[in-house]
Amino acid sequence: MKNTSSHTVRSLVNAFVETVEDLSQYISSQQQLGNNELRFSEKTRNTIEAWGTAAWYRHGFASRGPENAGIMIIDSLGSFFEGPPGELLTKILTAMRLTPGQVYICNTSDFARIQNHINSNRPGVIIVLGEEAGNLLLKREERLSAYRGEFHRFMDTPLMATHHPSALIENPGLKRQVWDDMQLVMKQAGL
Question: How far apart (Å, rounded) are the C-alpha atoms in residues 73 and 17?
């Protein structure tokens, strides 16, 4: 069995899609055989019934951290605190006098989840890691350099877009820009 830390977000998405397609084919074949009543465990039934509802958003594989955290991080890549980018993000938070357990982090894969979280929890500041997430939330199609380094508003919440830690690994010269951005976040958040 492969080491799960070596999986990429794309490979996990592909595996999940394949599993859902297999389940769909299985259900279709059962219906063709006249079997309209499938037996699932109670846990599976609860998961299926919660799919797409507010209860579903409690599942943590697309997010991590306390929901009522004052700082929300939206990650373009979904790696959170894993691998070299995750280690670097942890160091950035440490420099801000925060721990990973004090921030709520999610990925851009479910825009509705992001909006629901902000509506329900009203974080004080949103940090967006990477151009993809910045463009998604700010409804832009431009380089991150065009809008990083200053606060924007998303759902009436201050939002700071900055470089993703993986970009800092590729180009260490960007670290100063990120630290400047985080100092503005610290001031906004009262840290």
Answer: 26
Helix (H, G, I), strand (E, B) or coil at 71: strand
User: pLDDT of 126-146, one tens digit each?
Assistant: 999 888 888 888 898 999 889
86, 87, 93: which is closest to 179 by C-alpha? 93
Q: Domain 63-189 - what CATH class?
A: alpha beta
132-135 contact pairs (CB < 8 A, 24+): 132/76, 132/108, 133/74, 133/75, 133/76, 133/108, 133/161, 134/76, 134/161
Cβ distance 67 to 120 under 8 Å?
A: yes
3-state secondary structure of 122: coil
Residue 165's nearest CA partner among 128, 139, 191 is 128
User: Residue 29 and residue 110: Cα distance in Å, rounded?
Assistant: 30
pLDDT in tens, 75-125: 877 666 677 888 888 899 999 998 888 888 888 777 777 888 888 889 999
What pTM was computed for the model? 0.68
How is the chain split into domains, by residue range?
A: 4-56, 63-189
